[in-house]
Structures are given as C-alpha cells and as structure tokens.
Amino acid sequence: MKNVVIFGSTGSIGTSTLDVLSLQPKEFRVFGLVANLQKEVLKKQIEKFSPVYVVLPEKDEQLPVLFPRTKFLFGDEGMEDIVSVSQVDIIVMAIPGLVGLKSTLKALNLNKKVALATKEIIVSAGPLLKKYLHNILPVDSEHNAIFQIISEEKTNIKKIFLTASGGPLLKYKGKTENITPRQILRHPVWKMGEKVTVDSATLMNKGLEIIEASFLFNAQHKQIDVLIHPQAVVHGLVLFPDGFMKAVLSVPDMKYSINYCLNYPARKNINLDDLDLFKIKNLTFQKPDINRFPCLRLAKQVLEKGNSYLPVLNTADQEVVNSFLCGKISFSDIPVIIEKVLEKHKPVKINNIQDIYETEKWTKQQIASLI
Fold first, then answer.
1. DSSP codes of every residue in 185-203
2. Which domain covers residue 99, as residue numbers?
3. What share of the chain is helix, strand, coil (3-state, %, to 5)?
4. How far is it, in rounded angstroms, from Cα 64 to Cα 139?
5. Residue 35: which CATH number?
6. In the 8-state DSSP scheme, what is residue 209?
7. Cα–Cα distance for residue pair 56/291, rounded to 1 Å
8. Which residues sit opposite 93 in a β-bridge?
9. Is position 12 within any domain?
10. Assigned domain for 50 exists
C-alpha cells in the first residue's frame, strides 16, 4: 500500500484525487492532507479518510480537539516536515502559486514521487527542477498526455501540440473590457479553480503550459505549439521526424490523469467512463489568434528570454488575475499590465529559491503600483 499526501486537498484537484483514492482503498492510503481556507470541507475529509497528518497554514485550536488521532502541523515548516516522513511515497502537489515550492524541492531531494499539478512551480522554478524530472509526474491533462506519448518512445520528437478548449470566451464577440468575472468563471468544459479559469479565457494557461512543456520534455520553444480544440478530448499530440503523429484522448476529467500518475507505470481500471467517439462525431482544431490572445505571445517571449522573466510572468499573472476577480481592473487590462511589468524588469539568473522569492516580491510591488 502506498501512502499519499495531498497538498491542496480542498481544491478541485485535491477533491478529485480523494475521489480516485477512495476507489482504490487496498492500493493507497490517504496519509496526509494539506489545506488552507475551506475548513468545513477539510473536516469532512478528515472524518472520511482519517489521515495520519494534517497541515494547516497557521495554528488552529478547534481541529486538534475534534480529531485527536490526527497529528496537526502548521505553516511552511509543517509542509516540509510532512514530505520528510519516511512512510510517504507520493506527494500530489496542487496548491496554487509558490506556497508549495520548498516542499516540492524537499520531496524531490528525498527521492519521492511528486504528482505535480501546480503550474507556477514548474514555470518559476523550472531550471531548479531539471535534475529531478525522473521523479515528477505531470498531472495537467495536456502534459500528462505528452508524458504518456514520449515515455513510450525511443526517438527524438519534432513537435509538441498542446490543446486548448478555447475557454469561456471562444465564441464571445463583444468588447473585452466589459467582461465580468461571473462570465469568465462559466467554463464550458472543465471544472477548475477561479485563477486557472481566467487563465483559460486569456490563454495564459496555454502560455504557461508551453513553458512547462519546455522544461518537462527538454523541448525548444519552436517545438511547442497550441491548438484550439473545443471538444477537449484530445489532450496532447506529438509529431515525430518520420511524419507519424500520436495523440492521447480521454473524457475531459482530471481524474484520468490523476489516476495515471498515482498508479504509474501501471494502468489501473477504476471504472471511469470510456470515451465514446460515436457520440462526439467531430474533432476540430484551429490555430489561436495571437492578436486576440496577447498573453500567449507574452509567454512565448518569456520562454525565449528565460531567467527571472519566468517568475515575473508567473507572479504578474497571478496578481492581475486576482485584481480582476476583485473588480479592481478590467479583463482587457490583464495582458497590458503584465507586459508593462515585463518591460520594466531587469533580469537576473535564477540560482536558488531565494532568487525566485525576491523576484516574486519585486513583481508584486510593481503590480501594486500599476493598479
């Protein structure tokens, strides 16, 4: 039996992971939960799965009394402590932002498997993660698809294609400055957190995924492209030098890639629905409009420049998306503000975690002044 720790257990990836684990009680044990704000959801998770450890961002007086058999840890130190426990086999990292960066690097240093769902960690710290790629399993459906294809091949690749559903604005014809957060958060296909849903609308999520793919699969930026695919059943494609192309398809549900990562290298049937191509009938693809989606252009430029531009992009996007959701800026301001910060930045080489945190701090200050 493998012991699993879930970072971000009350979020969309975390709850889906627990659903998958509950279908395999003989193979996996929920050893630890790391959560933040949704205390009532966390209570139900503790009641159902009886984890050995729970990590909270700060000390709590109530939960340890309610669950005396569970060991409670707190803050950054608690997150690092839980991945250091010898019994832990797999860490599912699904906390947004860079909160889980230290814990991820600690787990990888200890030779533990990390099912990584947090884009920000790979985008900002890609250069620091390169030597640990053998222990990283990508949870994002697109990178999971590419991983499945490439891991079975013994040859070089010609091109990687990441697919995008087009998000909630695919058919939108109005002025982007009038778009509200409520409109954006109605994603037509995926059930995701608020930040990634906004990124789906700007296509910044695909820009970040291009950067991720570059680090995960040692690919140049010219080898990675994006296809708009509204049906969202083809998650990734790889073109090989001999002209053959391979693709991975599934029902658009994160449980498929989560299950794949947990059981890798085996494939385990947990009775998820099979994809019915007869019902879908048509699979369509189109090239994204760079003029309509400037965030995609910005991400590609940042990948070319590298170094501290990577955490600047990551942090700037996170800050402006939060500002949009809070009503401080319009939707059309998102790429404009990000580009202004990138233009002001004087790059430094990323040698360690502290370099990333200092760049993050600088970027937040710039965003605050601009807003």
1. T--SS----HHHHHHHHHT
2. 2-138
3. 50, 15, 35
4. 31
5. 3.40.50.720
6. H
7. 43
8. 7, 116
9. yes
10. yes
Task: Please check whether residue 8 lies inside any domain of the structure.
Answer: yes
How distant, in Å, are the alpha carbons of 20, 139, 167, 184 from that of 79? 23, 20, 33, 32
Determine which helix (DSSP H) or strand (DSSP E) holds 314, and give its type and residue range.
Answer: helix 309-325
The pair phi, psi for residue 290, each rounded to 5°, is: -60, -35
The answer to whether the pTM exceeds 0.85 is yes
Contact 17, 270 (CB under 8 A): no
Here the tokens at position 15 are 């709850």
Residue pLDDT tens, the chain, 371 long = 999 999 999 999 999 999 999 999 999 999 999 998 788 999 999 999 999 999 999 998 889 999 999 999 999 999 999 999 999 999 999 998 899 999 999 999 999 999 999 999 999 999 999 999 999 999 999 999 999 999 988 889 999 999 998 877 766 766 676 777 777 776 656 566 788 888 988 999 999 999 999 999 999 989 999 999 999 999 999 999 999 999 999 999 999 999 999 999 999 999 999 999 999 989 999 999 888 889 999 999 999 999 999 999 999 999 999 999 999 999 999 999 999 999 999 999 999 999 999 999 999 999 999 98
Burial 139-165 (b: 16+ CB within 10 A, else e): bbbbbbbbbbbbeeeeeebeebbbbbb
CA 345 to CA 258: how far, in whole Å? 37
Residue 345: which of 366, 324, 370, 315 has the closest Cα?
366
Backbone angles phi, psi at 157, to 5 degrees: -110, 155
Q: By the 8 A CB rule, do 211 and 307 touch?
A: no
32 assigned to some structural domain: yes
Number of domains within the chain: 1
